[in-house]
Write a structure and sequence with these properties.
Elements (H helix, E strand, L loop, with lengths): L9 H28 L1 H8 L13 H17 L1 H12 L5 H38 L12 H18 L2 H10 L5 H6 L1 H15 L5 H28 L1
Helix pairs in contact: 1-3, 1-4, 2-3, 5-6, 7-10, 9-10
Length: 235
């Protein structure tokens, strides 16, 4: 098979893409099987901030284990998926474009992991403790394992995504689409957008859960202004 993508017929591109997708799916499946073996310990780890969680249907506990295994399988397969994607697109990239992609993915991965860890170890314990503090003598929490895992997973995913803001800002500043002055002048609009994003990304409709995401997101916006300022000066 020729390495130059321009020499490859369209069907050859599709065939290569199909096999790379299949390899990625096999990777997800294998990692999911491995994580399922440890799913009980993973659930214990995820629920350490609460006393007890319950399942409300015969299939719920099993379904939650499958869900956790698939989520972790997807996350652990990211290097394999990226490698397959990289091998598919790199022949069509210029050398300077190829040199930018790898650092971008590395930094984006670290920022995503940082956001996920920040959420799990700092935000969630405080947030869940606050939300459960509204219980009374007659009003007790009865947490469904399905709802709890969904809440935790969505919050971790949301924080991982919003922690990409400095990376995105860096590259937009690098190519000249934004400046630090533009971001500084747009603070009032940014606050509104941040609140809307927080409401859209958080799984719970209560204002406290949304603020748990909105406050760090605004902090990252301020960090992005500094990042873009430094980037503009170097450019």
């Amino acid at each position: 098979m020729p390495k130059d993508p321009k020499e490859m017929p369209f069907l050859a591109h599709l065939e290569e893409l199909r096999w790379r997708i299949i390899k990625s799916l096999i990777s997800i499946l294998l990692f999911s099987i491995v994580t399922y073996v440890f799913s009980e310990k993973i659930i214990d780890f995820l629920t350490k901030t609460v006393d007890n969680v319950y399942f409300t249907s015969p299939t719920e506990a099993f379904a939650v284990r499958i869900k956790i295994s698939l989520i972790l399988g997807l996350m652990l397969s990211f290097p394999v998926i990226f490698y397959q994607l990289w091998q598919f697109v790199v022949p069509g990239l210029l050398d300077k474009e190829a040199k930018v992609v790898i650092p971008a993915v590395i930094f984006a991965t670290f920022f995503f992991i940082g956001g996920a860890l920040f959420c799990f170890f700092l935000v969630l314990p405080v947030g869940i403790k606050f939300l459960l503090s509204f219980q009374t003598d007659k009003l007790k929490p009865w947490l469904s394992i399905k709802d709890y895992v969904s809440f935790v997973a969505w919050m971790i995913l949301a924080f991982g995504l919003v922690f990409q803001l400095p990376i995105v800002s860096f590259f937009l500043g690098k190519i000249g689409l934004i400046t630090h002055k533009t971001l500084s002048k747009g603070r009032k609009y940014a606050i509104v957008i941040i609140l809307i994003l927080a409401a859209a990304l958080t799984p719970s409709p209560d204002i406290f859960s949304q603020l748990m995401l909105a406050v760090p997101l605004y902090f990252l916006y301020e960090v992005s202004i500094i990042v873009v300022r430094v980037t503009n000066k170097k450019s």
